Amino acid sequence: MKVNIQAINFNVDRKLVDFANERLAKIEKFYDKIVSVDVFFKLENTTDKENKITELKLLVPGDEMIVKKTCKTFEEGVDAGADALERLLVKHKEKMKAH
């Protein structure tokens, strides 16, 4: 599985990249045919504390899953997004078994 990370409106630090790679590697347990995951970090210019947007785009053969989370930290966004992707992958796998 390939993880592509892009930061929009800021420079991403190494710790965040390592955290995202480590957390997203765990979703391979749920579905082994994952092609790639694209991670987009966006910094929104608002006075809100929750101004960090994390968008995860997961590619599996024949399907694409997108999860978008807005949180106080990017780490929190990656964690919440990965949890949502895990649930989506389990549903996808069950749907594939039904066919």
Describe this structure in words.
The chain is α+β, with helices and mostly antiparallel strands. It has one domain (2-98): Double Stranded RNA Binding Domain. It has two helices and four strands. It has helices spanning 14-25, 74-98; strands at 2-8, 36-43, 52-60, 63-71. The protein has a four-stranded mixed beta sheet, covered by helices on one side. Helix 1 links the parallel strand 1 and strand 2 (36-43). Helix 1 (14-25) runs parallel beside helix 2. It starts with a strand and ends with a helix. The mean pLDDT is 92.
Total domain modules: 1
Uncertain segments: none
The CATH topology comes to: Double Stranded RNA Binding Domain
Question: Quick one: CATH class?
Answer: Alpha Beta
A few lines on this structure:
The protein is an alpha+beta fold and 99 residues long. The chain contains 2 helices and 4 strands; from the N terminus they run βαβββα.
List the helices and strands and how they pair.
Layout: E1 2-8, H1 14-25, E2 36-43, E3 52-60, E4 63-71, H2 74-98
Parallel strand pairs: 1-2
Antiparallel strand pairs: 2-3, 3-4
Helix pairs in contact: 1-2
Q: What are the defining features of this structure?
A:
alpha+beta; single chain; four-stranded mixed sheet; 2 helices; 99 residues; elongated; RHF/RaiA; Double Stranded RNA Binding Domain
